[in-house]
Amino acid sequence: MILLFGPPGAGKSMQGQMLAARQGWKWLSTGEMLRRSNDPAVIDILRSGELVSDALIYQVFEQAVQDARDKKYPNIIVDGFPRTKEQAAWLDEYMARMSEKIDTVISLEVPEAEIMRRLEKRGRLEDTPEAIARRMTIYRQKMYPVLGIFAEAGVRIVHLDGVGTAGEVHDRIYEEVAYACQL
Ligand code: AMP
Q: Domains plus CATH for the chain?
């Protein structure tokens, strides 16, 4: 598995989809799966910028990985999970249980001013000014520490510049993924 990490608006989804299309791999975005949910309570949480419950996320993630494995995808690009230390600990246990491994974590770095410009343009349901502010706070408080957990576990983390055209950022990511997965 490849894990894409970074703040909202860093380009994880676009880059995840580009890499998946190029390699015939599965792009697995917990946020995208939740956005397609028909549950109004879930949509309300997304609109607020808060995180959904761990229990729901584990269920969504496990089911999606199972589905990708059943469909024989050679690899999975995970976008948006884990987002907290608790989720990272759960993932570690899950990886051991399922004999999965993290090939590399790609952390996309984008300056906050650029992120704000991108999110204002994007206009997803969770891109209101209040929800953007909340998600940035959650990123700093909850998501960023996840990198520390990965580092302690000896997982390879690559920090890449997420500024530039989609193609330029893709080339940077591809080079690292090709190395990590021996493509
Ligand atoms: P994303 O598309 O990854 O930015 O996710 C959009 C929204 O989905 C987030 O703001 C959260 O409300 C929810 N979400 C996605 N992934 C997770 C996760 N791992 N844990 C909790 N909530 C999540």
A: 2-181 (3.40.50.300)
